Amino acid sequence: MPVPMIDIPAAVHDPQRLQILEDYDILDTPPEPGFDDVVTLARQICKTPIALVSLVDRDRQWFKAVSGLDICETPINQSVCAHALAQRETLNIPDLTLDARTRDNSLVTGEPFIRFYAGAPLIAASGLVIGTICVIDTVPRSGGLDVGQIAAIEALARQVMMLLDQRRLIVLHDERASELREQVAERKIAQAALEISDDRYRSLFNSLDAGFCVIEMAFNKDGSPRDYRFVEVNEAFVDQTGLHDATGKWMRDLAPDHEPYWFEIYGKVALTGEPVRFEHEAKALDRRWYDVRAFRIGPRAARQVAILFNDITVRRNAEQQQVMLNEELGHRMKNSMALVQAIASQTLRGAGDRAAVQAFNQRIAALSRAHDVLLQQSWTSAKLADVVLGAISAHTDPTRVSCGGPEVSLEPKAALSLSLLLHELATNAVKYGSLSVPDGVIRVNWRREDGSLILDWVEQGGPPAAPPERTGLGSRLIDIGMVGTSAVRKTFADSGFSAEFRAPLHLIEHQIGQSHG
Amino acid sequence: MDKPTVVLVVEDEPLLLLLAGTLVEEAGLQPLYAGNADEAVAILEARQDIRIVFTDVEMPGSMDGIKLAAAIRNRWPPIQIVVVSGHSAVAPSQLPEGARFFAKPYDQQHIVQALQAMAA
């Protein structure tokens, strides 16, 4: 037999109504004593075998409490309660088989063959109906419920609403409570985490060899730094600074002579948030030298700076001593060279070749000048420009020389051999080349190319150049070039002598951090 | 014949003392020798004919060459002074006016020329 079409009341699908029902969060929840009691009362008062609290959803009705029936929900087209949705009065149907709305209902035409229905609407605060509390009999009841029973069932309907509202409040409360509980738990976890990390922080803090402290800056009205106070210091702080019980104290009280530099730099860190690293002397702290890292900690308004530092006085003293030793060595070498010159002079006095003695002395002097240039960098390296100028200016007025090229740092050995080379070139220029006439000049230029240094020596304004007749030490030094294995190209032109010297950069350039033998 | 100009050479290293003396002779002048500033002052107090003092800077004793040069300018203003040193960083302001400075190892010809110019 085909299922007859039942008119579903429009109220069923009212979205507002459905929303309210949903907000009650009641559908598909387990039975609860409050609702069960209401249903028991309804049965008794109305003297029916069946009573239930029905909630009408869009496509079904669902029973929160049911007595006398073994089902908990039915499809919407079996719902009699649906018809109660549009009204606020109790729906009273004495004989379901006689009512056009219900006579084709499958619960009427088939099991359990219901005949009488009375349902009081469950009216939400907004006036919309979410379901019913209803009583059902399997025999028709003429006249339906009496007045007293209707009043009772409507009272019970209000009771159900109260239960639903109460329930909702409890749920909300529970949700809120569990939220709060969660928050508390979170805070506890965070607190615990803080405590753990605080412990770890502490143990790291105090196990550092380096001094560590957090300071708080104080500024004058004009924004300039005035002083700083120690918020906390680690155990190594005392050893590193000599300041005892610094926590809570102001630096100007602890060390009145502390230089302005320190306040300025920490003040800048506190204001800009930019970390710094530097080495500086603290005259007020026994003239110790410190390697310092400072960075802002916390929000800008807190003006706190964390400082990690190491006393490097010993290292600096060693470094300075090294510098002094190098310089002293350099000076002693120059004295030795003076002695060599003296020995040569005295020994060769009677030998007759004064020119040879002179050349010898002049080469020693050139070597000495090269040593001077190296001394400027404590014997680590020499700038190519300084070597060139140093070598040539002994022979002539600097206005007659122009030189230029990129900055190149030479290894000591390369600096010395280049100096001797330039000495020979300059000596020749004075004797036979452009420097032998008043207007002659020399141009020295260099460049880097493909891993090589290329140095050009060009004489101009002098007499035509000619290859030397004899190959003395001078020309041999020139031919050997800058490092002894490099390429030399000599040109003897009418305009004068010029030469190009090449040397691999990796053989002559100073590498920072390395010391060649 | 004029007696050659007397030059007092002050230097603690014997070989360099000798060398300086040789250069003085090469310049046509006559050397006197002192091994340190104290000896030099003793000689200067005893003689009237010293016209030039040639001194090293680094020497043992109560004075180095710079202090000696200042003392000479103070007590015997007419005496001309040549100062030499292994430390090239001697500033003109450290020396008396008119004193000449040469860094060791010095160019011997330059020294000879300077002495000749001073004696002239």
CA-atom Rg of chain B in angstroms: 13 Å
Secondary-structure element string of chain B: EHEHEHEEH
Count of helical regions of chain A:
13
Strand order, largest beta sheet of chain A: 3-2-1-6-5-4
Helix content of chain B: 25-40%
Query: Which structural class is indicated by helix and strand composition of chain A?
Result: alpha+beta
**Which spans of chain A have pLDDT < 50 for at least 5 consecutive residues?**
none
3D structure, described in words:
The complex is a heterodimer of chains A (517) and B (120). Chain A is 41% helix and 24% strand. Chain A contains 13 helices and 18 strands. In chain A, the strands form four sheets. Chain A has a six-stranded antiparallel sheet with strand order 3-2-1-6-5-4. In chain A, helix 2 runs antiparallel to helix 4, helix 9 runs antiparallel to helix 10 and helix 10 packs parallel to helix 11. With 120 residues, chain B is an alpha/beta fold. Chain B has four helices and five strands, in the order βαβαβαββα. Chain B has a five-stranded parallel sheet with strand order 2-1-3-4-5, sandwiched between helices. Chain B is globular and about 35 Å long. The two termini of chain B are 15 Å apart. At the A-B interface, helix 8 and helix 9 of A face helix 1 of B.
Produce the secondary structure layout.
The complex is a heterodimer of chains A (517) and B (120).
Chain A lengths: L14 H10 L8 H14 L3 E7 L3 E8 L5 E3 L15 E3 L12 H4 L6 E8 L5 E9 L9 H61 L3 E9 L5 E9 L1 H7 L9 H4 L5 H13 L3 E7 L5 E10 L6 E8 L1 H35 L6 H23 L5 E2 H10 L7 E4 L4 E2 L1 H20 L9 E9 L2 E9 L12 H8 L7 E6 L2 E9 H4 L9
Parallel strand pairs in A: 13-15
Antiparallel strand pairs in A: 1-2, 1-6, 2-3, 4-5, 5-6, 7-8, 7-11, 9-10, 10-11, 12-14, 15-16, 16-18, 17-18
Chain B lengths: L5 E5 L3 H13 L3 E5 L2 H10 L3 E7 L8 H11 L4 E6 L14 E4 L4 H12 L1
